Amino acid sequence: MPTWWKFGFVASLLVMVGGLAVHVGIAKPEVEVTHDVVMWAGENDQTLSWGWGPEELPCDIFESCLYIEVHHTDSCDKQLRIEFRLTDADDNFVASKELVVESPQKSEPAPIEIGDNENDFEFFHVGEVFCTAAPLSDTADL
Length: 142
Fold this sequence. Notes:
Elements: H1 3-27, E1 46-48, E2 50-52, E3 64-70, E4 79-87, E5 93-102, E6 110-116, E7 123-132
Antiparallel strand pairs: 1-7, 2-3, 3-6, 4-5, 4-7
């Protein structure tokens, strides 16, 4: 095989490999994610804003509870899904919880009791509140 064929073959191979690298780089660009991962969100779920509720309200459903005030629940036709986790006195993880309640359907902030009947935790860490059509829960699931 003549020397110029070898040179042409190597040059063609380098051009093809370079073109393939450019194609892969364009077809699958790297994306930097800058937000927390959402564990589950259905098609119709809508995130609602909330704030801490009154501290003086008694626990009606749970042994240990707190209240949050959820804003614009009138945009939820069915239920609210509230995600939270429990930690001990040293802020060690105890459990992740989810509570589904009927939507109060109010334009002003609505107080919602969240809680649990477990006794091995100290703090509630409330995550997100969603509009949902999930089945109701009268107690938070473990």
